[in-house]
């Protein structure tokens, strides 16, 4: 039990004294970058899905 308490104390000390937290501005900039990257990746997946779906419709339409 003492080791758990010691771990919690050391974790708290590290989080308050040794970790460098981003500023609010840096956090907002990072959030915008993640949002834009997510939208771009989602659009790329949508385009690939539409192309694959169109290709399969074309393929199965010519087979039938």
Task: Provide a descriptive summary of the structure in words.
By secondary structure, the chain is an all-alpha fold. The chain has a domain at 22-64. The chain has helices at 2-18, 24-63. The model has no long low-confidence stretch (mean pLDDT 94).
Largest sheet: none
Mean pLDDT: 94
Q: How much helix, percentage-wise, in residues?
A: over 70%
Low-confidence stretches: none
Helix and strand composition category: mainly alpha
Query: Which of globular, elongated, flat, extended, rod-shaped describes the shape?
Result: elongated
Q: Please, how many helices?
A: 2
Give a summary of the structure in a few sentences:
The protein has 64 residues and is an all-alpha fold. The chain has helices at residues 2-18, 24-63. It is built from two helices and no strands.
Itemize the secondary structure elements and their pairings.
Elements: H1 2-18, H2 24-63
Task: Quickly list its features.
64 residues, mainly alpha
């Amino acid at each position: 039990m003492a080791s758990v308490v010691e771990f919690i104390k050391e974790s708290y000390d590290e989080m308050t004294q040794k970790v460098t937290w981003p500023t609010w501005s840096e956090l907002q900039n990072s959030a915008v970058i993640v949002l834009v990257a997510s939208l771009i990746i989602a659009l790329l997946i949508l385009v690939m899905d539409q192309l694959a779906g169109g290709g399969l419709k074309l393929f199965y339409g010519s087979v039938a």
